[in-house]
Amino acid sequence: xxxxxxxxxxxxxxxxxxxxxxxxxxxxxxxxxxxxxxxxxxxxxxxxxxxxxxxxxxxxxxxxxxxxxxxxxxxxxxxxxxxxxxxxxxxxxxxxxxxxxxxxxxxxxxxxxxxxxxxxxxxxxxxxxxxxxxxxxxxxxxxxxxxxxxxxxxxxxxxxxxxxxxxxxxxxxxxxxxxxxxxxxxxxxxxxxxxxxxxxxxxxxxxxxxxxxxxxxxxxxxxxxxxxxxxxxxxxxxxxxxxxxxxxxxxxxxxxxxxxxxxxxxxxxxxxxxxxxxxxxxxxxxxxxxxxxxxxxxxxxxxxxxxxxxxxxxxxxxxxxxxxxxxxxxxxxxxxxxxxxxxxxxx
Length: 347
Ligand code: P6P
Hints:
Elements: H1 11-20, H2 26-48, E1 59-60, E2 63-64, H3 75-89, E3 94-99, E4 106-107, E5 117-125, E6 136-144, H4 154-157, E7 166-172, E8 176-181, E9 187-192, E10 197-202, E11 213-215, H5 226-237, E12 248-249, H6 255-265, E13 268-271, H7 286-299, E14 303-305, E15 325-328, H8 330-343
Parallel strand pairs: 3-5, 11-12, 11-13
Antiparallel strand pairs: 1-2, 3-4, 5-6, 6-7, 7-8, 8-9, 9-10, 13-15, 14-15
Bound molecules: 6-O-phosphono-alpha-D-fructofuranose (P6P).
Cofactor: Mg(2+)
Pathway: Carbohydrate biosynthesis
Organism: Pseudoxanthomonas gei
């Protein structure tokens, strides 16, 4: 069971204790502390809303700015990306950054020392919700530079999610929370704005193995493949159907918010492949959305799957690769994997 902390342990103290226990190195402690401070700055910008002059689309009047995903960039997408890049440029703990908002990785400038970590992030996930004041978040993932140090290229980032040394997200909601794993459990910290510090508010988050709550955008139902159709039909059949119980549905359309709910009370989050764009494996990106969320969920006792394999085992082929995502309560993820195995003639 997760426990409330009193007196509150700060993120700084938690990281020092992890380093003292030999579970993280000094440079990784520094990296996580820098990312947390950058997220505090993003939280301030997001919380200003219309008063901050940063709502709406980036780009000039009449010509929107688009990212490599082909998505319109929000002003806050660009601002959040810049905050993370600037915060991490000079510390000497990183070799390069990669972001949803940048076509290719950005090596640390030659003017600064380089470290042996690689940082990936979705600087402001769910940003389409910004203009309607719904929770959004920053997702980050940390890998080691495979060559130790030196200039990094996109190819150095192409490591499976199981190679992550840390992952987390910061959710900008009614409160700002940082949820983090360095491979020893998943822990939640809440921003105390008066102190300007993240305080440990939930150690060892645990996802219940079973659930009666699912999260998927059902408006895409007609585009799903048969095993996904079969699985959701069983949920919707409720207690009269084969599952023998009623299910509730939630869809915030902000992955950080939906995943935070699942880490807090269980559930299954799904963004499957669909035939609207058959050439794409899914909507969500492997390297800086599915992998970090997969680590957090597994470290909290849950499961994260493509429907056919563990997300953290997927071998990346390119930086902005997409993947189908089923994650959360492990018995529910197993149920949808069984539907895929049956459809594939493997069960
Ligand atoms: P849809 C936000 O744009 C995002 O990448 C995730 O945060 C979210 O889960 C998903 O897309 C929502 O997608 O198709 O329901 O708008």
